Amino acid sequence: MPPSPKSVKDPCDAVRDGLIWGRWKSGERLKPQHLKEELGCTSAALREAFLRLAGEGFVAVVKHRGFRVVEHSEETFRQVAHLRLVLETEGVELALKYGDFDWEMALNAANYNLEYIENRMAEADDASLFVKRWSRQDWHFHSTLMSACWSDTLMQVYRSVYDTFRMYAVSQISGFGFSEVTREEHRAICDAAIVRDLPACHVAVRTHLVHYENNNRQLKRLAPKGA
């Protein structure tokens, strides 16, 4: 008997979500027989999802062997991080110009929830237990920050770039991209945005995005080589 509509998840969204929070590692083979049962979908629907994700750059097609997660590289991560910085900088400028009081409240709420999860991660013996929720809340914070930009196209492109960035981050960055200073960076972005201090907000966003960490936040530039 086929699963009821309520039990069926969109396979493309579900697999993309897993890729973003690091369920699968770089180059890992995706096993449709397990996913089909888990997601309550048909083989055809799952294959269509894999092909869509391949078109988006998340999944690679292996001849006669199915699908696997794309191989993550530092150079690709560097490029995606730079593009995310460009888009978020533009989105922030527009959001600070057009954002209203409701936007301020939404941003404060998003930062509060993100900070709560990050505090739990900092206290936990195993922070990986929170990575899935943290990845979703991190997206909610950054998308809320930009939500008043009044450009659906910008937000759509940003979502694609953000998802790619996050997939690489959980693979390339120690601690899945989380550290003690992550909380401070998010707070600095929020505080500057609320008071409409654009230069300070740009600095805070750039500080947050142009570096990645190695446990104790040893910094390494993500901007393009030669920049």
| Assembly state (oligomeric) | single chain
How would you spell out the order of helices and strands? HHHEEHHHHHHEE
Cα distance spanning the termini: 58 Å
The tally of helices reads 9
Helix content range: 55-70%
Protein architecture, described:
The strands form two sheets. Strands 1-2 form a two-stranded antiparallel ribbon. Strands 3-4 form a two-stranded antiparallel ribbon. With 227 residues, the chain is mainly alpha-helical. Residues 1-7 and 212-227 have low confidence and may be disordered. The radius of gyration is 18 Å and the shape is globular. The protein contains nine helices and four strands, in the order αααββααααααββ. 63% of the residues lie in helices and 5% in strands. α4 packs antiparallel against α7 and α6 packs antiparallel against α7 (152-172).
List keywords for this structure.
single chain; two-stranded antiparallel sheet; mainly alpha; disordered C terminus
Quick structural summary:
The protein has nine helices and four strands; from the N terminus they run H-H-H-E-E-H-H-H-H-H-H-E-E. It is mostly helical.
How is the secondary structure organized here?
Blueprint: H1 11-20, H2 32-39, H3 43-55, E1 59-62, E2 66-69, H4 74-98, H5 101-123, H6 131-146, H7 152-172, H8 180-194, H9 198-209, E3 211-212, E4 220-221
Antiparallel strand pairs: 1-2, 3-4
Helix pairs in contact: 1-3, 4-7, 4-9, 5-6, 5-8, 6-7, 8-9
